[in-house]
Structure formats: C-alpha cells, structure tokens
Amino acid sequence: MLKKHLALAVLVTLVWGVNFPITKLGLRSVDPFVLTGIRFSLAALPLVFFIKRPAVKFSYVAAYGVIFGLGMWGVINYGIERGVSPGIASLIIQLSVFFTMGWGCVLFRETLRGTQMAGAFMALIGLAAIISTREGSHAVLGVMLIVLSALAWSVGNVIIKKSGVTEVFSFMVWASLFPPIPLFLMAWLMHGSAPFEGLQSSLDIIAILSILFQVYLATHFAYWGWNSLLKLYPVSTVAPLSLLIPVFGISSSMLLIGERVPAPDLISIAIIIAGLAVGLYRKPV
Known about the structure:
By secondary structure, the protein is mainly alpha-helical. It has 15 helices and no strands.
C-alpha cells in the first residue's frame, strides 16, 4: 500500500475511533435517536439536491439507509446511552467482521478458513468475558445492543455487495435520506414529545460540534476514504486496518471523557483484538 493511502487509512480509522467519545459528548444532552436522526438529516441535506442518485435499485438505497442509520448507529448510540463505554462500543462493533464472514458463507457460498473460525471463537470468548463483568441488567442490555448493531452493519455490507454500487459517496448521501423519520419515530415511541420539546436548549455548543463531527468527518469523509481504499486494494489488505478503530476509540475515550478500563476488561479487549487479527489474517499468495 502506498504511503499516502496508508496515511488515509490511518486517518479514517482515527476519525472513526474518536467518533465514539465525541458521540458520547453529544448524548449528554440529546436523546440518542434524535441525535442520530439529526446526523443523517444533515448527511443527506442539502447534498441530495446536487448529487446524482446512484445507479442502483432504489430499494437497495432505502434498505441500507434504514439498517445503517437505525439498526446500526441508532442502536449503538442507544447502547452507549444505556451505559456501554464508547471505547468498549468501538471494540464490540468490530464483531461485524465475523457476522459478514458468516453471511458470505451462507449467501455467497464463500468458504471459511480455519483462521477465521479460530478468530471468531477467540472473539466470542472475549465478548463473553466482557458481558460477565457487567453489573446490572442495563449494562448487559447495552452490550447486547452493540452486538445487535454489529449484526446490522454486516447486513448493510451484504446489501452493498448485492447492489454492486460504485458511486459510494452518492450512495451514502442518498441512503441518509431514509433513517431520520424512523429514528425520530423511535424517540417519540420511547419518550413521547419530551426529547423534542427541550431540543433547542439541549443543542449547546458541545452537542452541535459533536453532530458536525459525526456528519462531515465520520460519515462523509471516513466512508468515502475507506471505500476508496477498497476500490484500490484487496479487502484482505484494507480490512485488517480496521483493528486500529478500537485502539483509537479506547485511547481517545480515556483522553476526552476520562474513561477508565478495568484490568479484566483490558484482558478481554486484548483477546477480542487478537481474535480479530487472527480472523482477518490471510497467508500471502
């Protein structure tokens, strides 16, 4: 990989990692589903008026938007709001790698390698250890929500593969049209009008900066950069770099919001990262 492309990959993973504690700062004053709805509203508007619709079936665009916006990010933010630390969330979401491998085996008749199965087993051990150290049903629920969001991300990956889309930036912008209404509806179903009545006063400078970071860096820039790399290099070359996301996520959470990681969780984190590394390893040809 060229140095400029490696630098882009590191920058993208840095943005995605830092996005977790940045999102946590926004969640201190804004409902998780409302915050996510605002994020995708701004990700779509006004760009949809200037960017041509991607040349794929619109059902793919709509399905990806709902799954990615509500099923992944809405659930992630709700899980963080329920008590999962941003650093742990940035790690657990990487389990989507193994869910994606499973879908590839079931839907596309891909063969799982021994290292992939061994890596998945190690990651499950680490995840089970993290769950076992959570205190209270709310904490366990939060972790399971992040696991659910990882599953949703893997479904989104399948949709992208099935669609055959090449205009990745256009696809993301148009897909962002579909999550806001379901997200705002979810907030209303759970809390009534309360999240909306105090929204203006809740949008302080920290919440606004958090939303802007999520829209223009974590969504527009990062997904453009990552998918550009996937066009230039094999997945086996790009995918292992995603292991930097929890590294940046945990370290930035410690710096920005004072997150403390207990020793048992550090061991579990190491096991999960090792499992991901083993699962993504591919012997050079």
